[in-house]
Structures are given as structure tokens and as C-alpha cells.
Design brief:
Catalyzes the hydrolysis of the adenine ring of phosphoribosyl-AMP. Keywords: Amino-acid biosynthesis, Cytoplasm, Histidine biosynthesis, Hydrolase, Magnesium, Metal-binding, Zinc. Belongs to the PRA-CH family. The protein is mainly β. The protein has one domain: Ubiquitin-like (UB roll) (Roll), CATH 3.10.20.810. The chain has 2 helices and 8 strands; from the N terminus they run ββαββββββα. The strands form 3 sheets. Strands 2-1-6-5 form a 4-stranded mixed beta sheet, with helices on one face. Strands 3-4 form a two-stranded antiparallel sheet. It has a two-stranded antiparallel sheet with strand order 7-8. The longest helix has 10 residues.
């Protein structure tokens, strides 16, 4: 297989595309991250989610520190080709760096406040290496 399939993606000016990780089976949206061509190619080749970390300025293999890898079951693009959807099996049940199952744990309540609606499953200090 050639890399021509990557040409169907509408990369932004920085060569990135938003990528949404969705839990296989439940349909729960776990997180949103960014991918460049290499990250998407590596994700396809390895079957494990690889993203582009804008803060680190490098490829980020999901779970490289936490062990909470995402095994990719399917890759899809939206109708415009400008968003990638990864259907994944989330290892360890934690996708968010806050120690929660997913990154969408705040919901706007009737008072206009962001309420936390999902529990911390594991203290982040016990998940990640601290410098």
C-alpha cells in the first residue's frame, strides 16, 4: 500500500488534522488530539494511536508514559476530509491525562458553570513520570 490515501486528508496550514478517539463498542468520545501525516501513517502501520503533540513539538505515542495505549480498530474521515475519527480500544480505561475515562468530563449546568461529571479513576501523579 502506498501513502496516497493520506492525500485525501485536508491538512491545515501547519500540516495537522484534528483526530477524535472514540471508544469501540460504547461510542463514547474519549479525546481530541492532532495528527500530522507521519502520526496518521504510523497509527495505520502499528495499529496504535500516534498523535502530534503541539506542546512537545513531537510525535506522541498514546500511552508512552501511562501505559494507557489506544489500539486502533478503524480509521475514518469525515465528509470534508478535515477530521479523522479513530475507533479504539482504550487500554487501562483511562484516556485523559487527568486520570479520567475521557477528556469530556465537564458539562455546562443550568447556572452557567462547568460541573465535573466524571470521577478521577486514578491520581495522575501515580500515572505519569514527573521530571
Amino acid at each position: 500500500m502506498t501513502d496516497a490515501w493520506l492525500d485525501a486528508i485536508k491538512w491545515d496550514a501547519d500540516g495537522l488534522v484534528p483526530a477524535i478517539a472514540q471508544e469501540e463498542g460504547t461510542g463514547v468520545i474519549l479525546m481530541m488530539a492532532w495528527m500530522n501525516r507521519e502520526a496518521l501513517r504510523l497509527t495505520h502501520e502499528t495499529g496504535h494511536a500516534v498523535y502530534w503533540s503541539r506542546s512537545r513539538g513531537r510525535l506522541w505515542h498514546k500511552g508512552e508514559e501511562s501505559g494507557h495505549q489506544q489500539s486502533v480498530r478503524a480509521l475514518r474521515i469525515d465528509c470534508d476530509g478535515d477530521v479523522v475519527l479513530l475507533q479504539v480500544e482504550q487500554k487501562g480505561g483511562i484516556a485523559c491525562h487527568t486520570g479520567r475515562h475521557n477528556c469530556f468530563f465537564r458539562e455546562l449546568d443550568a447556572n452557567g458553570d462547568w460541573a465535573e461529571i466524571s470521577p478521577v479513576l486514578q491520581d495522575p501523579d501515580t500515572i505519569y513520570r514527573n521530571p
